[in-house]
Structure formats: structure tokens, C-alpha cells
């Protein structure tokens, strides 16, 4: 597959962050980026998403290519412990997201209606909404949690892209790590 045909993939990531100003519930598009890589992995038995379709990799390349330092990524950053730590953080984040959304749906917790960085740090902004939809409050809470996860990983990816190489995030991306682990288990069965 020719990667030149995919040079506009970065616009999907940029559009994601614009669409949350149209309506925060459009942050549910994050599920596409969470599910599709594993569907393609199952179908193709290789990392098709990472190699050809990942809009984030394209975004990081586009945003940092001219200013990236091109320093080699430190070995510790792509060590198995760090990669697994990022996966655990990702899974912990999903668990917190599910648990807090359930609590909001049950009326046992107030919704968090602002983005957060690294789950812990509120980003005190009010996102103007160009369109309003009558949605349950738990779905709005979940939408902000998804935005927070996408925003956190994008900020970290941009930082790594400027400090090292454009696609440094790919070295610790939980989707890539989980895909590698699935492929390794598949190879061990053969």
C-alpha cells in the first residue's frame, strides 16, 4: 500500500478536536480508533492500522516534523516495562471511565463536565457547543472522559514528537503494544 495515498489522515485527528466544539458527544468517535485497530489485526493478522491507517501517527508527523529534534528515543522509553506501564494506565483509564460513567448513570456521582489531563488534573475550560443534543448526563460524562483520554495521549505524543522524533508516541502506544502482544501469542500457537 502506498503511504502517499494516506497523507491526509492527520486531518481525522485534527477534526476530532474540532468536532468536540460542535457537540461533545462526537468524542464517541474515539471508539472508532480504539476498536478498528483490533478488528484489522484480527482480519489481517498484522498491524495494518499502525502501518497504514493511524491518523495520530500522521498527525504527529505533520505537526512535529519540522520542529522535531530527531534525537534518538531513549531506550528506557520503549522498554517493555514502560510499554506495559502505558498499557496498564490505558486499561486503568478505561476502567475508571466505565466505573464513573456507571456511577453517574445511577445518580451516585456528579458528572465531570470538563476535560482532564492524566485523569487527575482538571482543565478548567468550557467547551462551546454549536449544536445541543438532548442526551443523558451519563453520556455527556463519558464523552468528556473520552475527550480527556484522547487529549492526554495527544499532548504526550506531541511532546515526545518535538523532543525526539515525530512518531515517538508509536513506541509506547498502547494499541501498538497490545497488537504486538496479540501477534506474539498468535505466533507462539503456530
Write the layout of secondary structure elements.
Elements: H1 10-22, H2 30-44, H3 48-53, H4 55-64, H5 80-105, E1 116-117, E2 121-122, H6 137-163, H7 174-189
Antiparallel strand pairs: 1-2
Can you tell me about this structure?
The protein has 190 residues and is mostly helical. It has one domain. It contains seven helices and two strands; from the N terminus they run αααααββαα. Strand 1 (116-117) and strand 2 form a beta hairpin. Helix 4 packs across helix 6 and helix 5 (80-105) crosses helix 7. The longest helix has 27 residues, at 137-163.
Strand order of the largest sheet: 1-2
What Rg, in angstroms, do the CA atoms define? 17 Å
Number of helices: 7
Low-confidence residue ranges: 1-5
Structural class: mainly alpha
Structural shape: globular
Strand content: under 5%
Portion of residues within helices: 55-70%
Distance between the termini: 27 Å
Compact summary:
The protein is built from seven helices and two strands.
Keywords for this entry:
190 residues; mainly alpha; two-stranded antiparallel sheet; globular
Amino acid at each position: 500500500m502506498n503511504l502517499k495515498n494516506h497523507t491526509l489522515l492527520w486531518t481525522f485527528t485534527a477534526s476530532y478536536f474540532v468536532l468536540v466544539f460542535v457537540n461533545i458527544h462526537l468524542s464517541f468517535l474515539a471508539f472508532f480508533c480504539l476498536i478498528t485497530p483490533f478488528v484489522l489485526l484480527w482480519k489481517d493478522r498484522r498491524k495494518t492500522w499502525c502501518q497504514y491507517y493511524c491518523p495520530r501517527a500522521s498527525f504527529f508527523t505533520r505537526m512535529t516534523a519540522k520542529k522535531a529534534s530527531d534525537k534518538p528515543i531513549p531506550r528506557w522509553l520503549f522498554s517493555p516495562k514502560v510499554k506495559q506501564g502505558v498499557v496498564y494506565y490505558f486499561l486503568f483509564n478505561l476502567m475508571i471511565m466505565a466505573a464513573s460513567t456507571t456511577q453517574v448513570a445511577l445518580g451516585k456521582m456528579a458528572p465531570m463536565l470538563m476535560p482532564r489531563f492524566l485523569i487527575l488534573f482538571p482543565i478548567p475550560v468550557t467547551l462551546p457547543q454549536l449544536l445541543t443534543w438532548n442526551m443523558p448526563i451519563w453520556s455527556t460524562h463519558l464523552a468528556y472522559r473520552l475527550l480527556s483520554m484522547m487529549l492526554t495521549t495527544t499532548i504526550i505524543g506531541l511532546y515526545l514528537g518535538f523532543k525526539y522524533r515525530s512518531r515517538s508516541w508509536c513506541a509506547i502506544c498502547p494499541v501498538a503494544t497490545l497488537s504486538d502482544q496479540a501477534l506474539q501469542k498468535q505466533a507462539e500457537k503456530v
